[in-house]
Amino acid sequence: MPPTTRTRRGSLLVVAAAASVLLTSACSGAAAPSGGDAAAAPGKDDKLTLTVYSKFTDREYGVVTAGLNKLKAKFPNIEIKHEGNQDDDKLTQSIRGGNPPDVAISFYTDNLGAWCSTGSFQDLKPYIERDKIDLNQIPDAVRNYTEYQGKRCAMPMLADVYGMYYNTDMFAAKGITSPPKTMSELFEDTKKLTEFNPDGSIKVAGFLPSMPFYANQAQYWAQYFGAPFLGPDGKSDLATNPGWKAMFEFQKQLIDFYGGHEKVEKFKAGLGDEYSADHGFHKGKLAMIIDGEFRTAFLKDQAPDVKYQTAPFPVLDSMADHYGGGFTTGTIIAIPKGAKNPGAAWELIKQVTLDTDTLVEMANGLKNVPSTKASLTSPKLDLQPQFKTFLDIYDSGKLVANQTTPIGDAHLKAVNDFAEKWQAGSIPDLTAGLAKVDAQVNDELKQKGAGG
């Protein structure tokens, strides 16, 4: 099965947007978290049960449960009740109903702004200051996606990092000796690697520009074009940012190369699901893709004969010094408002977010990137050669994460919706179209910017 931390993508953007609305409406009356003292840690002999909600299921549930139970080495009388398959909607309902878990694990970082601004997740600053936690052991971008407007209401528990996968047999057959580093090189390599059938239809695509499709999502592409979703004033400014124009013009350039939107869509329709053995890269239908580190596990399991390598994803030619970085997101963990055992909950959070051995064991089991700098160099980390690329990206100092907002992922969905219309040729004026997206997003930010 796919790593469940990946269920944020694709059609579930709609689900997540609905969850964000529920978050804001359900918690609009919630008081802001108190700025009081941190709750005391339990005594070594105290007996209690910590309830944890997460979305993990099946094999991954077992990996995470083992990680949570590492706390028993320090607190042997604490029982961990790990309830899997609990999504953000169920978590919101439990907080609203006054019966939340002690610890909440969420896959969807884009809901963090709503969690923090409504007080649904407690402020962790008192705990961090009391225990003298050095947050510098976590990369800047990861710290950014676990806080909102300077308020730390969550900690990172493993990360996802995105980069390029490329088929080495296809590269060799076309005489390409290294992966592209710039968008112009990506376009040239795409032309070399693409094969057409006698009737002009696409047989093999060098790089498919369809969006949203697989990991072709605006939020994963944007940083490679220097295109932030929000400007310094906190408002959407896509129409005035040259990075967004460059990104969509590059997408259109690729669409035109393939012979137009209809040909691309017909080819795309024949590709398998993102997490199935019939994925287009697995089947040799796509020579290059953008994806997260977890794809290495899928290839090992579902397509072991595919010869491939990984690399950082290319950047806009004018941004060559940014090459080597990438987009990151990940799983977050927090103490919900109304948790019965907040002091013990914090001890558990420290265990699974800061203890190197715990992080490495979970990273090896889930095939995610461990989220502290120390864990990246642990000799216990399982380093498949293609996986190491993502550790290097993570440690590059060039990571970029989504900006947190009180509207969840509504701005991401708006841009992906625009991309779909743009590639279909139904947006005649790029700047005017982006300006409409700005107006839509800014209207939602204005309505919900105070957290509802």
From TrEMBL:
Cited function: Part of a binding-protein-dependent transport system for a sugar.
Keyword Transport: yes
Main location, first listed in the record: other
Subcellular location field: Cell envelope
Signal peptide range in chain numbering: 1-30
Pfam families given in the database record: SBP_bac_8
Protein name, per record: Probable sugar-binding periplasmic protein
Keywords: Signal, Transport
GO cellular component: cell envelope
InterPro entries: Bact_solute-bd_prot1 (IPR050490), SBP (IPR006059), TAT_signal (IPR006311)
